[in-house]
Amino acid sequence: MSVHSKCQQPNRRVFMLQAVTVTGAVLVAREASAQPMVSESDAQAASLGYKADAAKVDKAKNPKFAANQNCANCALYQGKPGAASGPCGIFPGKQVAAKGWCTAWAKKA
Ligand code: SF4
Predict the structure, then answer these.
(1) What is the pTM of this model?
(2) 15-25, pLDDT tens digit by residue?
(3) What range does the domain containing 3 cover?
(4) Which atom of ligand 1 lies nearest, measured to the CA of 102?
C-alpha cells in the first residue's frame, strides 16, 4: 500500500501545480476585465459631473459640453476602440463607459 501511494504522490503534485497555474492564469485574465464601473454617485465622479451616458449631461450646468464629446474620444480614455467601457486616467482601477462624459474631458491629440 505504501509503495502504491508513493507512486501516486508525484502525479498528484504535478496535477496540483497545473491546477494552481491554470487557476492563476484565469484569475489574472479575469482581473483585467473585472474592474468595477465608475458610479455617477462616487464622490470624485459626482464632483466631475460624470455621466455614464453623455446624452444625459446637463448642458446648462456644463456649458463646455459639446454633443460629440464622450469618453471614447477623450484623451484620458484607455479603452480599446469599439469597447463599451475602459479605464480612464482620472479614475484609477475603475472603468468608465465609452459613451460617458465628465468635465475633465480633453480632446485627443
Ligand atoms: S476624463 Fe475623459 S475618459 Fe475619463 S471620465 Fe472624463 S470624459 Fe470620460
Answers:
(1) 0.72
(2) 656 665 555 55
(3) 1-34
(4) 6
The rounded radius of gyration (Å) of the Cα atoms in the chain is 23
Nearest to 72 by CA among 59, 83, 64, 56: 83
Specify the length of the chain in residues: 109
Ligand 1 site, CB within 6 A: 50, 71, 74, 76-77, 88, 90, 96, 100-102, 104-105
Tell me: do 72 and 47 sit in the same domain: yes
Residues 44 and 25 in one domain: no
Q: Point out which residues pair with 88 in neighbouring strands.
A: 77, 91
26-49 pLDDT, tens digit per residue, is: 544 444 567 999 999 999 999 999
